[in-house]
Amino acid sequence: MMPLFEPPYPAGLPIGGEWAHTEATTTVLFPFDGTEVAHAPLGDVELARRAIEAATAVAPAAAALTSGVRRALLIDIEQALRAHNEVLQNILVLETGKPLVDCRIEVARSIATWAAAADEVSHIHGETVPIDLQASGQGMIGYWTRRPAGPVLGIAGFNYPLLLATHKIAPALAAGCPIICKPAPTTPLATLLLVHLIRQVLQAHEVPVEMVQLVTGDVQVGQTLVSDPRIAVVSFTGSAAVGHQIARDAAPRKALLELGSNAALIVASDADLTAAVDAVIRGGFYASGQACISVQRVVVMESVAAEFETRLVARMAEVVVGDPRADETRVAPLIDERSSERVLSWITEAVEAGARVVFGGKQQARSIAPTVLAAVPAESKVWAEEIFGPVVCVT
Questions:
Q1: Which single residue of 134, 178, 274, 317 has CA 20 to 30 Å from 331?
Q2: In the chain, which residues have pLDDT < 50?
């Protein structure tokens, strides 16, 4: 059977000035049915070191780019993404398994981020300092300016691979910093296309393509990149445990960490219950619950709890489970079987501790049915930790 996706970019990894050959590949699978999507290049420690060397070498040239050039690059990259909007949507559906509606939003937000980064270039400036506060500074003016930090490493999560890579690459280019991007092992395809488009724009502007590189690989590759002292800034989006280890490995260099959440919604006794239920339907199940700001905990005043629950259950049919390629689908399989098993085990643990299943709570084909739990003990994992699945807890 032919893979579902034929890469529109060169083979290998965009490292240095070329696309470097990789001995190994990894198979990207469609979470909906396990179909093979594509064979993606798999990097190693040696390629990671080559990327660092290239980023270090190009850093002076990157820092010397004028504000006008940096802004022009970002505008043209935004336009390149607009031209590939539908292609990127389809790639995201296949590699993440997220519903098409969420992938459309991801591409739109990515495009908006490139536009915002272009605008931000004009806001990178310093300040004057009143040195003449002291007599010795009479007649003097002090000032400071912002300068590029140097090579950046951006490590993105699997749930929004295009957007998270954009969140790292666009600001780095705006600031005049070269960047190495490392996507999640399960979702490298959209990011590879993104970097390909970026490097085409860089080349068109006669800017070194080494400013943006991409490396895939295992934990050793990640540790090689994070621990190298030539990397000035590490930006990571992912789990708390990995993020804390990255902060330790990167210290004392700067680390920017986005490590998830456990978002809560409070419903007061005088709340608009229709709006509150709508917030749960929209916020609790998009991206199949695989979002760090997904509504997970709902705290409802007792006086309106029964009515809130009744209204919520009445609307759960809107959360359609199915093929992520379909327009109507709102919940599809999670990124892999291990994630599904974890979420189901957390539901079971909560029920055994006294929680009540209001809706769902079971596997539905390869997906987890959108689930609402009530009376969840505070010490249960589904209440105390980020579940990253289509589960909402009400108390």
A1: 274
A2: none
CB atoms within 10 A of CB 327: 9
CB 227 within 8 A of CB 206: no
Active site residues: 258, 292
Task: Write out the two tokens for 330.
Answer: 């709102």
Enumerate long-range contacts of 26-29, CB under 8 Å, 24 or more apart: 26/185, 26/216, 28/94, 28/95, 28/186, 28/187, 28/188, 28/189, 29/186
Crossing angle, helix 85-96 and helix 67-83, to 10 degrees?
70
Please give the C-alpha separations between residue 247 and each of 52, 223, 254, in angstroms, as whole numbers: 19, 11, 8
Under 8 Å between Cβ of 284 and 390 = yes
Q: CA-CA distance, 214 to 7, in Å (whole number)? A: 15
Query: pLDDT tens, 195-243?
Result: 999 999 999 999 999 999 999 999 999 999 999 999 999 999 999 999 9
Region of 320 (left: φ > 0; alpha: ψ -120 to 50; beta: rest) is beta
Residue type, 72: A
pLDDT score for 3: 75
pLDDT of residue 1: 59
User: What tokens were used for 297?
Assistant: 């905990």
pLDDT value at position 314?
97
Give 173's contacts (C-beta < 8 A, 6+ positions apart).
70, 73, 74, 77, 117, 179, 198, 211, 212
Q: Which amino acid is at 122?
A: S
Tell me the Ramachandran region of residue 32: left when phi exceeds 0, alpha when psi lies from -120 to 50, beta otherwise: alpha
Q: Rounded distance, CA 337 to CA 333, Å? A: 9
- The one-letter code for the residue type at 363 is Q
Catalogue the E-assigned strands of the chain.
Answer: 13-15, 18-20, 24-29, 36-42, 127-129, 142-144, 152-155, 179-182, 212-214, 233-237, 254-258, 263-267, 295-300, 356-359, 363-364, 367-368, 371-374, 391-394
Rounded Cα distance, 241 and 246, in Å:
9
Could you give the count of Cα atoms lying within 13 Å of 20 in the half-sphere of its Cβ? 23
Joined together, the tokens standing for residue 376 give 């969840």
Structure confidence by residue, pLDDT tens digits, 304-323: 999 999 999 999 999 999 99
